[in-house]
């Protein structure tokens, strides 16, 4: 398995022969509702080029930091998309021609090679968005992705999972509480799934943030703190802090089910 992190929630996963782009924010600014004064993200250095030969785009949420319109406008609209219902509406409005909306419990199979199972993710407003479990059908290699630190209890029945991509820190706002809960749930997630590798997401990358919301955000937890917690609980999970744009080649052990 090969993975490349592009910062924020954006990943390229190469599993088997398939190249899957997850929650891509790759160009332009990140702004919610055109309110730059409220929150704005900028890349310190723009990407030299967009990833090519993408076989599938996966979107976990309909919010701008997951279904980023400027990026999606730059990508080929014939690329198949698997998305939460709210994110499916975004890509359909942009003219994507192969959109599969998945609710928790539903599955999609890519090229008869990879099963993608939607599971409950973060509660956003009145709806619950998606997390995803990817399984390579030939090797049985599995990957779990959830970008806000809200693992569902039902996930335990799919253990063990080889690779987990999820936050390890929490981002908290006064009065509102944690909008990302990685520091509270990363250890629990590792205990449930016993992954070989844990990759932090959501708060990393060469990205600068500004605006009122950013000035109020408080970060709790760290990669080193999670490593210490794993050691205390005798878990062998390796935590890799990804560097933006640098491919990660994972040599995973085959586990007998």
From TrEMBL:
<protein>
    <submittedName>
        <fullName>MBL fold metallo-hydrolase</fullName>
    </submittedName>
</protein>
<dbReference type="Pfam" id="PF13483">
    <property type="entry name" value="Lactamase_B_3"/>
</dbReference>
<dbReference type="InterPro" id="IPR036866">
    <property type="entry name" value="RibonucZ/Hydroxyglut_hydro"/>
</dbReference>
